[in-house]
Amino acid sequence: MTPDLDRSTIETAYARWAPIYDVICGPVMLKGRRAAAAEARAIGGKVLEVGVGTGLSFDDYDASTEVTGIDLSAPMLEKARAKMDSGRYPWVKQVLQMDAHRMSFADASFDCVVAQFVITLVENPELVLSECHRVVKPGGRIILVNHLYSEVGVAAAVERWTAQRTRNLGLRPEFPFARLQAWAQSTKEAVLIERRKLRPFGLYTLVCFEKTPTPLAA
């Protein structure tokens, strides 16, 4: 298993990706993006998108949501702000350059947090999840979509081989679901409520956690 990606690798990789990201990654990630945004729309209200990138997902939200996006990459955010300037996305309120490991938002600021193709690519996935958990309201959800490690068979072998060769591209294909599950089990008021392979090929997995409300004192 390769180590977690460091911040420098990610920033360098996504500065390079920014000019071509929409063309290359837009079609590939379409099903996953739409599935995550559909879950967020079902909740509605204030949505935080972690790793908003170039704003590819803006089309997937609507007026039932008020979207704030954060990302480390300034070149990616330039693309997102250009989309906002078009006036087509009034539900996108702001995009900010921010480290998801140390968010500046107050506790319980959002009705849900969405992280699409992000959690496998950060320095400390568990810390990012804990920050997402902190800023979501009780009863709110953390919605992830990602490719997760196949763990066994030929697919797992290919993912391990690929991981060694795509690290500098900001990719990591062999991140296991077990880490997400272990985080939830060790985190108070975090409950795994959904784990679903997405059609048509099951390449991506949708994972949802709910922040359970604190019981009222008797």
Walkthrough of the structure:
Residues 48-144 form the Methyltransferase type domain. This is Methyltransferase family protein. Keywords: Methyltransferase, Transferase. GO terms for molecular function: S-adenosylmethionine-dependent methyltransferase activity. This protein has helices at 7-17, 21-28, 30-43, 74-85, 125-135, 153-166, 177-186, and strands spanning 45-50, 65-71, 92-97, 110-116, 136-146, 190-197, 205-211. It has a single domain (7-148, 175-211), classed as Vaccinia Virus protein VP39 (Rossmann fold, 3-Layer(aba) Sandwich), CATH 3.40.50. The mean pLDDT is 89. The relative contact order is 0.16. With 218 residues, it is of the alpha/beta class. The termini are far apart.
Task: Describe the secondary structure blueprint for this structure.
Elements: H1 7-17, H2 21-28, H3 30-43, E1 45-50, E2 65-71, H4 74-85, E3 92-97, E4 110-116, H5 125-135, E5 136-146, H6 153-166, H7 177-186, E6 190-197, E7 205-211
Parallel strand pairs: 1-2, 1-4, 2-3, 4-5
Antiparallel strand pairs: 5-7, 6-7
